[in-house]
Amino acid sequence: MVGRSLKVQVMEAGELDELQRFATRHRATTFVTLLAGFQLSMGSRTSSEERLTATYFDQRDHPTAKEMVGFFLRPTLVRSRMPPGQRAGEALGAMTRQALEAHRRAHVPLLHVVAAYPPALSSLLGQSPPWYFLFHYMPQPEPVDLQFGAARGTLVHSGSTAGRSRGSRWGLRRDVEGRLWARLSFDPAQWREESVRALAGDYAGRLRKMMEDPARLVSELTAAPGSW
Predict the structure, then answer these.
(1) Residue pair 39/82 in contact by the 8 Å Cβ criterion
(2) CA 202 centroid distance within chain
């Protein structure tokens, strides 16, 4: 079954600039802050404080890889925890440490990581059967024409793999005008389009509330049941 894909604007350029300044003040990256907002939105839909979220990390840090053509993005799992009694600003610090730990093991194939503790997947995700969420952020606008030395190419989207697995894919990217967009891929057999759009709107709202008052407790920022 071929899945569906939606493109939804999450933030205006000025809001994203403010989010980046907010992240810097709390010694976090933009990615970590965006991921924290995602966990706040998903908090009302899971029964566990700990969750696994798949993401990509750049592994082109080896000197021999710097002049090589190709993608060096490795999928891995971020094991995140946002206790309800923790303040939002403190939660960003904890999530930064959790993301760094995930980056350190990104060289391990994702299937090996999952196979290492299959009984824990359901409890960590807070759902049974477990859903699969892929969350990633690209700070640069999507290229159309690619060039690497004498090699040139054009980016092509087939959409053939969207939504084939249980769960959802969240791809966040900044456009040429500085706005933040989310491309949401999902399986229509498992998700309704209106629910996906509502979740995207709730996600943007959680980010704004977190920036407005980082001293608020995670329990106060977490989406209420039925909010989307």
Answers:
(1) yes
(2) 15
**Would you say 228 and 98 are in contact if contact means Cβ atoms under 8 Å apart?**
no
Cα 89 to Cα 93: distance, rounded to the nearest angstrom: 7
Dihedral over Cα of 103, 71, 114, 36: its sign: positive
Top pLDDT among 47 and 73 is at 73
Q: Chain centroid to CA 156: how far?
A: 22
**Tokens, residue 126:** 């807070």
pLDDT tens profile 30-45:
999 999 998 888 876 6
| Of 80, 82, 76, the residue nearest 104 (C-alpha) | 76
| Contact criterion met (CB below 8 Å) for 170 and 182 | yes
Checking if the pLDDT of 106 tops 90, the result is no
pLDDT of residue 195: 87
Dig out the tokens for 194 from the structure: 């209106």
Whether residue 15 is predicted with pLDDT greater than 90 in this model: the reply is yes
Length, in residues, of the chain = 228
| Displacement of CA 211 from its chain's centroid (Å) | 18
- Residue 34 to residues 91, 113, 144, 197, Cα–Cα distance (Å): 12, 24, 25, 17
